[in-house]
Structures are given as structure tokens and as C-alpha cells.
Amino acid sequence: MIMKKQLFKLLKKCFLSGLFFVLMGMQYSFAQQTVTGTITDENDSPVPGANVLVRGTTTGTQTDFDGNYSIEASPEDVLVISYLGYATQNISVRDQTTINVKLQTDQQQLDEVVVIGYGTVKKTDLTGSVSRVDSKAFENQPLTRVEEALQGRAAGVTVAKANGAPGANVKVRIRGVNSITGNNDPLVVVDGILGGDLSTINPNDIAAMDVLKDASATAIYGVRGSNGVIIITTKKGSGKGKINIDYFTTISQVPSLLPTLADIPDDFARLENIRRVNTGGSPVFTDAEISELAANGGTNYQDEILRTGYSENIQLSASGSEGSLRYFLSGNFRDEEGIVINTGYQQLSLRSNLEAQITDRFKVGLNLYASHGEIQNNFQTFGNGQGSLIYKANTWDPSTPVFDADGNYNNRSIKGIGSLNQNPVLTLTGSDFEDVEERLQSALNLSYDITDNLNFTMVAGTQLSNYNIQRYANEGPNEIPDVSFSNNKNTSYQLSNILTWQKEFGKHDIKLTGVQEYQNRKAKFNSYNANDLALPNGFYFAELAPNAGQTVFNNFGERELSSWMLRAEYILDDNLLITATGRYDGTSVFRPGNQWGFFPSVAIAYNLNGLVENSETLSAFKLRAGWGQVGNQGIADFGTNAFLTSNSYAFDGSSAGPGTILNPRFAFENLDLTWETTTQVNVGIDLGLWNGRGSLSIDGYQKNTTDLLLETPLSGTLGTGITRQNVGEVENFGIDVAVGYDILDGEDLNWNSNFAFSYVKNEVTNLYGGLDQIEGSVTAPGGQSRVVNIIQLGQPLGQFNGATFLGTWKSSEAAAAAAVGKAPGDAKYLRGDDGEIVFGAIGNGTPTTTWGWNNTLNYKNFDLNFFLQGVHGFDVYNIMQAGITGGAGDSRSFMAIDQVNQWTPSNETDIPSTVQLFNSSRYVEKGDFIRLSNLTLGYTFRDVVGIDTIKLYAGGQNLFLITDFSGYDPEITSRRTNQGIEDVAPGINFGAYPNPRTYTLGIKVGF
């Protein structure tokens, strides 16, 4: 009986509840109204297929072909308007019956967030030090290299060209240099795939670049982030289909030739006669020959190998979205002629970015990128042992013409003077060097929202790189031809599993990101070389002469990296922001017991917007601080092992047999090698100015790298060679400043200006074995074998080594000069108490200050971009100038213009009249410069015969250079690649390929 009563009460409650909901539903239906409207994009074009949904219900519709929609909704409802590729908008209905909506593309969403690795964060919620460069910053500058888009636009990032050759290396450093013998390149992440190569990426494919600078930001990538991280997000399609074509052609020229005596060959001949007599010889030119040179001139080999280069670049892209699929397809072809004869570069690249929204919770993306690049006669491969070809051209005998009377090349100087090397015109025209790089990259992204708060993302990527080098050097008559072929094949794959949970609890916002990641890379190298080889039928039909020399070299490397990472982000009331990260990395390059390293970081920020809410100047105010550690595994794949090499030895005392010996360069293993660790502290302030019209960010940091993976020499009892040890420390202290402001913000006239400033002071704070300096490995050309760089305790990396030049010995100092074996007119150097020349630090090639000022002006259909950059606080070791001054070795003749005013008994100047040292302070110059990197003016025609836009533009790059440097350009340097890393030998110029001045004319068409 009791159970029946309880059942009756339950049924009664259910009935009353059901009746209540029915009545509420009737009330809801009675309150509904018809809402109509049109959905358009940012160009006011209708958006067909846009979703219009009543939030919290399944009631929804889609726009028709003209972007129109109609839906039933109540005043209390909120309409959710969405379309793939556009920002979702939520609009309250209230009493509106017509609601028109203009969608904004996700590119604008992208501008509001920063990619911080395995996720994004709003700019306002950022705790670490991150610089963003989006495509708007460089879209009006005709670029062929990604590095040029970074140069001067990201505070804390230093970008320097190795030289002006097409396809040449460009050095990128973030907040100074950490390692002395290891790699200092930043990690490049492209669409989530680690290990990208900036030189191969098409700048037109890039939507934005985020540069992670402090350890609280870079620790997310652990051992890969020790030198900073550049995260590249490529473009994605959205909205209606678009086709864009961008074509520009460029004329390149050397800004000016170096002044040499090749322009006044009769003076060259007179000075050569004097030089010969002063060294105990006889004159080499007769008076008749000097008169003929004065009347008819000589040959300027600098002018003979330099030319005007013509280049072209074409970019095509198609983008948009169809239903749940969004796409971006692009192709780029560039063909660049170098300003040095028979040099150039060609590249073809293709990209396909596809993204499909399979369901409301499941999204799939597939990015493919392929590129093929060919360098014609890579300038660095011609050998700098006796100087580059620019060096040789500037020191070659101007009295010897390129061809003899029979039309054959003059292989060497007729009189055996000037440069003793081969005719540089013959070297360039008779050589066929071809460097080919092929790359294929793929990235598969799967994203699934497990719940509204929990997301799982998988990123799987592969990279394949083939670098083939095919070289044939025909050294001319009576010379031995040399042929070589090598292949460097790298394959890698990556699998990243990312789990992200985020939830808001009132004033609390918590986000957790966990990552499990695995990477594997294999490298195979094969090299074959032969001399005395003829190629009458081409490279692949070579004829090997009897007894010709042959060499074969093969190598293999592999490394694995396994990682676990957890990042926690906490926001309290949109004011207090905390980010903590821990990454645990294991690498195969170290031995068991040393393979795993833990790298933590923490950052905190606080928004003080309440203090400035009534300010007319400040609209935002945030303070930031961070600390973190990152590691570096920068040694060879088998760098802890002893290195062996093949050799022949007569084991039986008579006939030699093959065997192996310890390699003299890496003689001994070191089983205890472990991580090089960089610890960084960062403090910063971010200000919003004049209601968001301007912004200012200032960061100060100190970065210490300890346990350097340093190559150290073996003690005498152990033999020759080196080994790696965890010794030494390097410190970087610096300040980054970024300022942006809309100077003009009118209806027809706009002027946006951005300024980036960086100061960094580098210092070696500890070496090994109590040493206060280490000798470098870069030697002067010409057979002198003098080392021109050192690593010095208490000083920045990049110290020059040489003698201190004091002018010339004067006649009044004849006795003192004779005491050290010299005579009046000879070069005078600082000497010690023992009478020997003192060699030491005489300059430094590492800049301390860089800045860039980027400006974009728009007036109606006109747009103007000008970009200035400056680099300060560094020297250049101008060995090129030493060569033309007659520094000895293979270039003993005087070619410098000022040599006409050299020391004589009646004119005792400080210009020596005899051979001098290459490496002395006489050839150290200030390298500071200011450059107009870009000036481009464009005009856009709109809606022309069915074409959306046609833009015509013209401009120039490297239009002027303000500097006291006497060479071509203080930014470019040259050194042999086997002489240590470039960061311990910056600013050394052995005759670098000149940086060209370019003039550009182009057209952009949008359909």
C-alpha cells in the first residue's frame, strides 16, 4: 500500500513537471520571431553557406548563394554566425528582425594571438618574451628570403648576410651567441614540425612568425630551444576562392668598385719597380711599357668578373574554402643572376595547405611543401686558402690582359707579379659547380575536441633533404682538372601527441598542456673525388687519366630525441598571469646516465590596467618576469666516440696493408659528455598607448650558458688532436625595445610605423685549464698561416688577433729599426721587451646594437614602404684591404691607391714602402652602418574588367649605405667553412661576394 502511494506521488511529479515544460515551450514559441539578414565578408561580398545557429539549440540554417538567411528566434536568443576561415560572431537578437553581419577572416584572429609552441595565447595574456612579425610587416617589400623579413623587425634578433651571392647563407641569432664550438642557429618550427630551414621557405607563404626569445618561452622546446625559436605559421584559405599572382623583376649591381691601382696601371708599374728594387731585385717594367699603360690603360679584373645581374620572381597562389574544406595552394619560381659572372641561383617551390572540418569536434589538416634549388658556382667553394675570387681579382696583375694575342686565356701573370693565382676570369668561366638541394616536407595535423574543455592534437611530420654537389674545375692549360661529387641525404620524422585542457572557474582560468614527442633523424654522406679527369662528353662521361688521384669518403649519422612536456597556465581575474613549464628530454648522442635532462621555466605577469584606465596616454600596462633553463645537445651524432680513419701501415715491416688509426682531429672519446645548459632571466614591461594606437615593449635579460660542449686540445703526453669536454661559460646581457604607432590614422591617409631596437653584450666568463685565451682557427691567406681570431676571457666572442700597427720607421729611428732587423720605410709594430712583435686582441666583429625602422604609408590607392636598418658596435677585419696593400704571400704587389703616397726619404708618411703583415690593426675598421633596405611605391587599381585588384609597384633595395668602412659592405664577411663556427670569427673579410644594390619592378593581380 505504501509503495503504491509513493509510485502515485512520483507519477504526479513527473506529470506536473512535464506540464510545466510544455507550457514553457508554448510561451517560447509564442515569443519567437522571424529574423532575416545578409552575411558578407570583409570585402562586402556575400558569403554563401555560412552557418546561423540559435545558441544552445539545434535550430539553425545556412545562407543562400546571395548570403541571405531567415531563422526563427526569440528576443532572448543569441545567434551564432560561423563560417570556416572566419571568426565566429555571437549576436543577441533582442527586438531585431533584421541582422546583417560582416565576418572577419581568421588572419585578424591570428593577429590577436601569439603562437607559443604546441598552442596559442592572446597577446594580452602573454607572460614570456615573444616578438611577432606578421605578413603585413613585409608584404610591401619584394622578398626572396624569409630572413630578410626578420631583419630589423624583431627586437632581439640579429640577421646578417654571409655575402651577396644568390642562395648564400644568412646568419640569424636570437639574443646573442651561446656556444663557442657548437651550432648557434635558432630552432625553426613550421606548422608544428621542428627543424625547418629558413633558406628554403617561400616568404609569400607565411602568415606570421613568432620569435620565442626568453627561456620561459623557449623551454617549451627543451634542448631544441637553447638558441631561441622561430615559429612560422603558413597561410590558410578562407572565404570565397581567390587567385593571386605576384611577379617582379630585378636589376642588381655592385654599388661601387673598390678603388685600386688597376685604374691607374702606370702608377702600379712604377710602384712595382720601386718595390722590386727595395727588395734587392731589378725593375720589371720598362719606361716604354709604363708609357703604354698610361696611354692605353690596363685590365681591371674586378670589373671583368662583376656584371649587372637580372633576376625574376613569380608567385601564384589559390586560396579559399568550400563547405568544410579550406585550402591554400602556392607555387614560386625564382631565377637570380649573380653580379659575379657565371654565378646564380634558381629555386622552384610548391605548397599545399588543406584543412577539413570533418565534424564539429574533429578537424584534419595536411600541409605539403617541396622545393628544388640550384646554386651555380657556389662562391664559397672556390677555396679561400689564398683569398676568394674577389680577393684574387683585386690583386691580379692589371698589366696582363685576360687573353693573349691568340685569343687564349693568360693563365698567370705574364711578369709573375700581382696575385700569383690563376686568372680569376678563367677560373669562373672554366668551372662548373652545381649545388642542388631538394626538400620535401609534410605535416599531418589531427585535432579532436574530446569535450568542450579537453582537446587532443596529433602532429606527424616528415622531412627529406638531398644536397648534391657536382663540381668540375678546369684549371686551364697545363693544369690538372678536378672533379668531385657528393650527396648528403637527411631524413627525419616527428610524432607529437598534445593534450590540452582548459576551463574557467569564475575569475580563474586554468589551461594545462601535455606533450609526448619523438623525433628521429638519419644522415648519409657519400663523396667521390678524382683529379686529372677530362670531360669531353660532359660530367657523366668522364675519362680518367692513368695514375689519376682518386678519393672516396662515406659517412652515416643518426640521432633520436624523446621528450615529455607539461605546461600550466593560470589567469586570475584577467590580471595575474602565471606560466610554468617542465620538459624532460632524452637524446641518443650522449651515453647512458647522461642522456636525460630536465629543463624547467616559470614566468609571471600582472596587468595593471586599472591604474591607467583614466589615463589619456596609457591604455594598457603589464609587467613581466621569467626564469628558465634550456639544454643543448650540439655535438656530432657519435661525438662521444673515438673517431677512426683509414690508413696504410707495414705491419710485417715490408708491404703496407690497410688499417685504421685514431683521427688526428677527434682522437679520444669522452663518455661523460652531457648537456650544455643555458639559464636565462627576463624582465619586461608592455604598454598600450593612446587607446591602442601605439604600443611599447621593453625587455631586459641575462643569459648564462654553462658546461659548454667545447673542443679542447689534448695534452702533449696524449698526442695531438682535440676532444670535447663540458667546460667554459658564456654570458649575454641585453635589452630589447619594440615600438609601434599609427602616426596618421585618417580616412584616406594612414601611416603605420614600427621600430625595433636590440642591445646585447656578449662575454666569455670562463674557459678551461686556467687559460685566459684560446687561439682560433681562421688563418690569413697567402701562405702566412697566421691565426687572425682568438677567444679571450672577459671579452666578447669575435676577437681579432694581430699586431698593433704604429706607422712606419722614420729616418730618425734608423738605429732602433736596425736593432730589430728593420729599416726606415718598413712597417712599425708594437713589440715586447724581447724585441718580438706582440700579437693580441685588436678588435671585435660581434655587433652590440641593431635596430630597424619599418614604415608603411597609404593614401587612397597609393602605398609606400620604406625600411631602414642599422648595426653598430663592431669592427671589420679587412684582410681584403691587406691584400691590395701588398701584404705578402701570394699578393705581394701594391694595388692600393694610397700607396702612391708611400714612405720615401723625402716624404716620410705612415704608409710602408715594403711588405707588411696581413694581420695587424692597420686593417681593422669600424663596421657601423645604416642602410635603406627597402623603398617601394605601389598603386592599386580595383575592379578592373572582372579583376579584383591590380597593383603596380617599383622600388629598390640597399639603395644607400652610410658607413666609414672602405670595402664593399661591412655586413658581408668571408671565411673558409672548415675554420670553426662563424660566431667566433665574425667580421673577417677575405674578399666577400659584394652585396648588390637592386632595382625592382613588379605587378600583383588578384582575382
List keywords for this structure.
1007 residues; mainly beta; Ferric Hydroxamate Uptake Protein, Chain A, domain 1; 22-stranded antiparallel beta barrel; TonB-dep_rcpt-like; transmembrane beta strand; receptor
Contiguous helical run count:
11
Spans of at least 5 consecutive residues whose pLDDT stays below 50 are 1-8, 10-30
CATH class designation of the domain at 107-247: Mainly Beta
Q: Describe the biggest sheet?
A: 22 strands, antiparallel, barrel
Q: What is the structural class?
A: mainly beta
The CATH architecture of the domain at 107-247: Beta Complex
Helix proportion range? under 10%
Tell me, rounded to a whole number, the average pLDDT.
86
The first-to-last residue Cα distance is 81 Å
Q: Approximately how much beta-strand content do the residues carry?
A: over 45%
Under CATH, the homologous superfamily of the domain at 107-247 reads TonB-dependent receptor, plug domain
